[in-house]
């Protein structure tokens, strides 16, 4: 690829296209693609790179404890987990309908794994996700209460399409939590 073309692609911020252009040019020549077919292929390459970057940014913003996918879940580990229910949740219909989902069970049965995997699926479907442990939530609200900044923290928790609060019953929360006033805001926790 010549320098002028490379420079133009860089200036237009078409890095996905720039990465695959040489291969696509060879493919176009080898398969005798017309201009429209060639253009469609290189634009698909660019869109794919942009989508991957967007997903990467959203995963970082979500702050998952670990990157989990349903492909990695060992269904034999806990046979009581009903695949049909989980795969129904993967559709994210509950997010579109603004419905809450609560996973209940003792520690170590796969709840954290599954909620992170569901969060990742939601990101892939274009939703903004925030993952926090209950202890992070409490710490952030208590810290900002001291600085009278609860509205800012509350806005952060109300912004995502899907808010995942994990570890709800693992340990006892500090007594100061009971004294935090609840205002007229509603969030799905």
Give a verbal description of the structure.
This protein is mainly alpha-helical and 189 residues long. It folds into two domains: 3-62, no CATH class; 70-179, Rossmann fold. It has eight helices and two strands, in the order ααααααβααβ. The protein has helices at residues 3-11, 15-31, 35-62, 83-90, 93-96, 111-124, 134-146, 150-158, and strands at 129-133, 162-166. Strands 1-2 form a two-stranded parallel ribbon. Helix 2 runs antiparallel to helix 3 (35-62) and helix 3 packs antiparallel against helix 6 (111-124). It starts with a helix and ends in a 23-residue tail after the last strand.
Run of helices and strands: HHHHHHEHHE
Given as residue ranges, the uncertain stretches (5+ residues, pLDDT < 50) are 177-189
CATH classification, class level of the largest domain: Alpha Beta
Count of the separate structural domains: 2
Helix share of residues?
40-55%
Q: What characteristic shape results from the CA principal axes?
A: extended
Estimated radius of gyration: 23 Å
Main beta sheet, described? Answer: 2 strands, parallel
- Strand tally: 2
Give the CATH topology of the largest domain.
Answer: Rossmann fold
CATH superfamily of the largest domain, called what?
P-loop containing nucleotide triphosphate hydrolases
Rounded average pLDDT: 84
Alpha-beta content class: mainly alpha
Strand-residue proportion: 5-15%
CA-to-CA gap between the ends? 52 Å
For the record, the CATH architecture of the largest domain stands as 3-Layer(aba) Sandwich
Across the major sheet, the strand order is: 1-2
Number of helical segments with 4 or more residues: 8
């Amino acid at each position: 690829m010549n320098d002028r073309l490379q420079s133009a692609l860089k200036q237009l911020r078409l890095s996905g296209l720039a990465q695959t252009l040489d291969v696509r040019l060879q493919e176009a020549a080898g398969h005798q693609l017309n201009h429209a077919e060639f253009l469609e292929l290189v634009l698909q390459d660019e869109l794919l790179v942009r989508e991957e970057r967007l997903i990467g940014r959203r995963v970082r913003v979500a702050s998952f404890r670990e990157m989990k996918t349903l492909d990695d879940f060992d269904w034999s580990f806990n046979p009581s987990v009903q695949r049909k229910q989980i795969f129904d949740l993967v559709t994210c219909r509950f997010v579109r309908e603004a419905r809450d989902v609560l996973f209940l069970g003792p520690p170590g049965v796969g709840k954290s794994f599954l909620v992170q995997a569901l969060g990742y699926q939601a990101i892939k479907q274009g939703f903004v996700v925030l993952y926090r442990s209950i202890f992070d939530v409490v710490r952030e609200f208590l810290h900002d209460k001291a600085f009278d900044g609860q509205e800012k923290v509350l806005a952060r928790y109300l912004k995502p399409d899907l808010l995942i609060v994990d570890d709800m019953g693992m340990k006892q929360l500090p007594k100061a939590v009971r004294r935090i006033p609840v205002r007229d805001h509603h969030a799905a926790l």
